[in-house]
Amino acid sequence: MEKFNAINEANNVIEFIRDYYKKNNLGGAIIGISGGKDSGVVAALFTHALGPKNVIGVTLPCHSSDECKNDAKLISDYYGFELINFDITNVFDVFKDELKNLGDFNLDDTKNSDINLKPRLRMATLYYLAALYSNLKGKTYLVAGTSNKCELYVGYFTKGGDSVHDISPIADFTVDEVIEIGKYLKVPEKVLYKAPNDDLSNKTDEEKLGVKYSDIASYIDDPNSVDIKIAKKIKKLHDSNIHKFNIPTYRSK
Length: 253
Known about the structure:
The chain is α/β, with parallel strands linked by helices. The chain has one domain: Rossmann fold. The chain is 53% helix and 7% strand. It has a 4-stranded parallel beta sheet with strand order 3-2-1-4, with helices on both faces. α2 links the parallel β1 and β2 (55-59). α1 packs across α2, α1 (6-23) packs across α7 (175-184) and α2 packs parallel to α3 (66-79).
């Protein structure tokens, strides 16, 4: 297998962004900054491609710790782009309060719905801000996606939440490849090597998935390269989330 060349790939993505923006007469990027490696690398790529003045990062706390917001500031300070804090905690709470009109639900009833509501509120906010700044600055802002190849393969994203974006710069890179690109682009180490988590469930991604990202990457390359029990778990995750990628649409004759 050919060795991954982070320098070449980073520069290729930067050119991909520039070419797409030039071809479509676009202006800037709105990026949800979680304080993790994926959004950090995406912010670095867009800053290099468009310049910091055309990048706006957004932190979107929702009953969150301050760590993510502080780590997001590390990224914005290093690359020099504007960082907005838009707290959606009250929006979430109003939604939950309205839910009481439908019945008396316990925490187990709403746990999965609550976790998925947060990224959906976040994405609605990012698109609102993209439209707002497009109008204010007189140029079109796109919402950048921050999912990597391993997450996408096992369907670790929310339909209508972090699955929604206008341009996807790291979707073809595994977690380790994202880190290599981040090292080249000098993403702050605290961000780059932080255990990935969704800041929603108080668990790391790997704890929630029950498999390691390194095993997912190996499985994608060769399903026989990982332990059979792990391979079965990865396949089950992949197969059970295929529905997230395709909307069945009836076509009349």
